[in-house]
Amino acid sequence: MESIKLIWVLAEKDLRIEFRTRQAFLSTLFFALLVLIVFQFAFDPGSPATQQAAPGILWVALLFPGIIQLNRSFQSEMEEGTLYGIILSPISHGTFFLGKFLANWSFLIAIDLLILVLFIVSFNFPLKLTLLWIVLLIFLASAGFAAVGTLFAAMVSSVATREVLLPILLFPILIPLILAAVNGTQEVLLREEFRFLSQWIKMLAAFDVIFLAASFLVIDHVVGD
């Protein structure tokens, strides 16, 4: 119970900082909006080509801007010099990692849901209850993205070129997650049948469990180095 409280305190601290500054939120939203505008000019919103490309467009707008938040997730501790204090404190490294993960996941869900609304409006998709499946895909995909991203962000937090290094390390690992998310979204947006949707949801859930557990187990070695 004490560990759960510490996880929430660490996550709340990061979310409060972001709520006050809104730097990552505004930067991420601007980047995502720019992606949607570029694709809107490249494709006619009502054309069949746009319908086919829509799942990929959505996930480009959802995943790539999230790198901004991950790069900033350890920035306040590095700038204030508190990271080493937290590492040396009695708090376990796993608890610290889970607090960061929860903060990043919460941020990604909030910004991704807003991007989803902008995407639906921009590309003239009708509002249907089936879109709730995309919301579920966003919850699952953002969990895996936050788990792996938080681990790698901790790994490169002290490197000067972390803005470039993080996506290079991160996206090859995320290929299964991206494939499952895009294919699941394609099932929802383009097809009437959802018989294959469950397999993509199961794949995302398995990815989340495996990589969250793996990240939790190796965080001691990452922080120790």
Could you explain how this protein is built, in words?
- The protein is mostly helical and 225 residues long.
- It has helices spanning 2-21, 23-42, 48-63, 66-72, 75-80, 83-88, 93-122, 131-155, 162-173, 175-190, 197-224.
- Helix 1 (2-21) crosses helix 7, helix 2 runs parallel beside helix 7 (93-122) and helix 7 crosses helix 11 (197-224).
- It is globular.
Keywords:
225 residues; mainly alpha; 11 helices
Q: How many strands appear in the DSSP assignment? A: 0
| Biggest β-sheet description | none
The number of domains is 1
Which overall shape is indicated by the principal axes computed on the Cα atoms? globular
Cα(first) to Cα(last) distance is 29 Å
Rg, alpha carbons = 18 Å
Which bin fits the share of residues in helices?
over 70%
Separate helix tally: 11
Order of helices and strands: HHHHHHHHHHH
The secondary-structure class comes to: mainly alpha
- Mean pLDDT equals 81
Task: Give a quick summary of the entry.
The protein is mainly alpha-helical. It has helices at about 1-20, 25-40, 50-65, 65-70, 75-80, 85-90, 95-120, 130-155, 160-175, 175-190, 195-225.
